[in-house]
Amino acid sequence: MPLALNFLLFQLGWFACVLGGAHQLPWFGVGVAGAIVLLHLRLAAEPRRELALIAAAGALGAVWDSALVATGLLAYPSGLLHPSLAPVWIIAMWMLFATTPNLSLRWLKGRPWLAAACGAVAGPLAYLGGEALGGVRFNAPAAGLAALALGWSLLLPLLMGAAVRLDGFAPLHPRPGDA
Questions:
Q1: How many CA atoms lie within 13 A of 80 on its CB side?
Q2: Which residues are listed as membrane-spanning (predicted)?
């Protein structure tokens, strides 16, 4: 899969999830994200590895965003199966995000400090974008943004490290000098 296509499909899925959540259509975003994930798996050289990364990211995201909801830092307008759990569309978005570490975010592999810095900035910015579109509400903006920055500074390097081991797009026989 070309890197630009991976990036564009992630953006499409992100908007579908956020706008679906914002407009009481959470399953719309889940469906779009699911279709993109299925295409991603179809194009992977080793889909089982990619599926393991996607499942791990979904579980990690479910726990992380549920903690943010349970503590009252964030609130979502739709898609919650339980008041203290993350909505289904945000979990689908985490799974969608897991399609990027081995393609369009490959440049972050082996750079945990850069991944931490990018996570600390881009994570909260993504949630602010979601808030502007009506997909999430910050109940305590300063505390919520601080928690997101700290969390994403840890979670993105963790996901990038997992992607090294679970790379379904890596060449099956790397050339000498490839990392």
A1: 17
A2: 25-44, 51-76, 88-105, 112-130, 142-166
Q: Would residue 176 count as lying in a domain? A: no
Determine the Cα angle at 169 with ends 166 and 174, to 5°.
Answer: 95
Calculate the CA 65 to chain-centre distance: 11
**Beta-bridge partner residues of 75:** 137
SS3 74: strand
Please check whether residue 171 lies inside any domain of the structure: no
Contact 112, 157 (CB under 8 A): yes
Closest Cα partner for 32 from 101, 92, 105, 90? 92
How do residues 82-139 score in pLDDT, each as one tens digit?
989 999 999 999 999 999 999 999 999 999 999 999 999 999 999 999 999 999 999 9
pLDDT grade for 177, boundaries at 50, 70 and 90: low
C-alpha 131/C-alpha 108 separation (Å) is 26
Q: Is residue 91 part of a domain?
A: yes
As a whole number of angstroms, the distance between CA 93 and CA 33 comes to 7
Determine contact, residues 152/120, Cβ cutoff 8 Å.
Answer: yes
Residue 133 DSSP symbol: T
Count of residues in the chain: 179
Expressed as residue numbers, the domain containing 100 is: 3-165
Look at the chain and report how many structural domains it folds into: 1
